[in-house]
Structure formats: structure tokens, C-alpha cells
TrEMBL record, chains A, B:
<dbReference type="InterPro" id="IPR011051">
    <property type="entry name" value="RmlC_Cupin_sf"/>
</dbReference>
<dbReference type="InterPro" id="IPR010462">
    <property type="entry name" value="Ectoine_synth"/>
</dbReference>
<keyword id="KW-0456">Lyase</keyword>
<dbReference type="GO" id="GO:0019491">
    <property type="term" value="P:ectoine biosynthetic process"/>
</dbReference>
<comment type="similarity">
    <text>Belongs to the ectoine synthase family.</text>
</comment>
<comment type="pathway">
    <text>Amine and polyamine biosynthesis; ectoine biosynthesis; L-ectoine from L-aspartate 4-semialdehyde: step 3/3.</text>
</comment>
<dbReference type="InterPro" id="IPR014710">
    <property type="entry name" value="RmlC-like_jellyroll"/>
</dbReference>
<comment type="function">
    <text>Catalyzes the circularization of gamma-N-acetyl-alpha,gamma-diaminobutyric acid (ADABA) to ectoine (1,4,5,6-tetrahydro-2-methyl-4-pyrimidine carboxylic acid), which is an excellent osmoprotectant.</text>
</comment>
<dbReference type="Pfam" id="PF06339">
    <property type="entry name" value="Ectoine_synth"/>
</dbReference>
<dbReference type="GO" id="GO:0033990">
    <property type="term" value="F:ectoine synthase activity"/>
</dbReference>
<protein>
    <recommendedName>
        <fullName>L-ectoine synthase</fullName>
        <ecNumber>4.2.1.108</ecNumber>
    </recommendedName>
</protein>
Amino acid sequence: MIIRTLTDARASDRNVSAPGWESARLLLKDDGMGFSFHITTIQAGAELPMHYKNHQESVYCISGEGSIEDLATGQVHDIRPGTMYALNLNDRHILRGRTEMVMACVFNPPVTGREVHDETGAYPADRAA
Amino acid sequence: MIIRTLTDARASDRNVSAPGWESARLLLKDDGMGFSFHITTIQAGAELPMHYKNHQESVYCISGEGSIEDLATGQVHDIRPGTMYALNLNDRHILRGRTEMVMACVFNPPVTGREVHDETGAYPADRAA
């Protein structure tokens, strides 16, 4: 059994950040769960184009408000507490925070822990997988 | 891209309940994400012995307070907002809610959607997997 807290993760090298967001990775590939689990904070006003070509991701909004734009269709979906989106088709998207948003994120395959988005908005594939 | 809300899931057959808990399954096996994602509410005073022999599960506490007892060691760990536990060893445990707790749960392999705990505290294996 693994027990971890957000407070501890935020104070450790499990926390990564980049302009507009930071993410505390509570579970990573090494934990052997077959997915990774992150609590990610999106800053108010952030506008983040992303494209996880190598991962499927689900995101559940715990707090805050914003939107996600599906770049395949142009549709914009509101995000509020209780909204979940899942990028089942590795969907290219833009995430926007109207306020600060706290999100529970699951990645399959799990991320290894030190990825940041590359120039295409993707996380690199895990070559060791 | 899949968009779902907790409110809609709770009002649909994605919601299942049993004494002491209810769970809204926002992602199930059919969604093809390789995991399932549930928002589970544990009632105040609930005491739930569980043993997921066929699934690994991580649980993140969004709100409320309680504890988890690891039956292999006898250790009891407090659960508060921001605490995560992961049953990486299919750990037998007892979950207790001091208050109502709202938890974000991830299962690997994904559950199919209509499981309830059997007499051993497990979800049955997905024979079609």
C-alpha cells in the first residue's frame, strides 16, 4: 500500500511546473499501477495548447472554472467542478483557466515523472516502456 | 473527446450504490482508456472491508476525513483532503469514514460498470478482458 499526500508531493521532486500550470505526480510509472495520477493546478488566465500523442488522459475538475476547446471540431466545452474530459482519441486541445483550476489527471501509459510538454504540446513517448 | 459531468453520471445507470457508499463511474472499460475513473462517496460512519483481488486501485481524497487500515500490517493511516492511497499489492483493507468522504478512484484494469463487491470484498474479474 502506498500512502502519499499532496502537501508532501508538492514539496518534492514529484512536483513539476511550467508557465501556466504545475503538477504534483502522486503516482508515476515506477509505482507499478499501470497509470499515473497527478493533481494539476492551472493558473487563472492560462491558455495551454496540448496534444498528448503518446498518452491517453482523463481530467476531472475538483475546483475552479475554465474551458476546453476541441481543435478537431472547434467545439468549446465549459469546465466546472464535477466536469470530466477524456482525451480518448489523443485529441488536440486548448485548455483555458478562467479561474485557477485544480484537476485530478490520469495518464495511460503512466508518465515517468520528469516530462514537460515538448514543442508540439506532447509528452515524449516512454522509450523504456 | 469524452465530456461528462458528475451530476449527469449520478442521475444515470453509471451510478451504483451499496450500504455505506455510492460511486459515479465517469469512465468505464467501454470508453477504451485502459482504466476506469469513479467519484465515490463514502458515508459518515461507514466501515468497509475491501479486497480488490483482481484490480489495482488508487484513491484520492477530495473532501472529508476518515482512515484506511492495512490488514497486512495493522497500520491505520489518516485520510484527509489531499491524501492518496494506492492498493499496489491488491492490499486487503478497511476504509472508514469519520465524515462523508468524496474520493476520486482509478481502477486498472477498468471496471465494466455494474460490479458490486462480492462476499470477499472484491470486484469479480472481468472474464471478457
